[in-house]
Amino acid sequence: MKERVEEALEFIRPALQNDGGDIELVGVDEDNGVVQVRLVGACGGCPMSQMTLKNGVERILKEAVPEVMAVEAV
């Protein structure tokens, strides 16, 4: 599961980097389907980061890896 999450993040990463930010995978809890990520750079302090996380990152990860139930920022 972790490898598939990393592949999906590589798909997302260029869009975040275009805005001066990036995303780091912190951990994957395979038992409950929770993925922990850290938004860095411009994304880390952006007031829209929660919306980006839920409406963008979480949606894409759930589509790419059906076992993902939620994405949390740490």
Write the SSE topology:
Layout: H1 2-18, E1 21-29, E2 34-41, H2 49-64, E3 70-73
Parallel strand pairs: 2-3
Antiparallel strand pairs: 1-2
Helix pairs in contact: 1-2
What structural keywords apply?
74 residues; alpha+beta; GMP Synthetase, Chain A, domain 3; three-stranded mixed beta sheet; 3 strands
Helix content: 40-55%
Q: Which outline best applies?
A: globular
Low-confidence stretches: none
Number of domains: 1
Stated plainly, the CATH topology is called GMP Synthetase, Chain A, domain 3
Gyration radius over CA: 11 Å
First-residue to last-residue Cα separation: 20 Å
Overall CATH architecture:
2-Layer Sandwich
Strand content: 25-35%
Element string (H = helix, E = strand): HEEHE
Count of distinct strands: 3
CATH first level: Alpha Beta
Q: Average pLDDT value?
A: 93
Summing up helix and strand content along with how strands pair, one would put the structural category as alpha+beta
Query: For the record, what is the CATH homologous superfamily label?
Result: Fe-S cluster assembly (FSCA)
With strands numbered from the N-terminus, the spatial order across the biggest sheet is 1-2-3
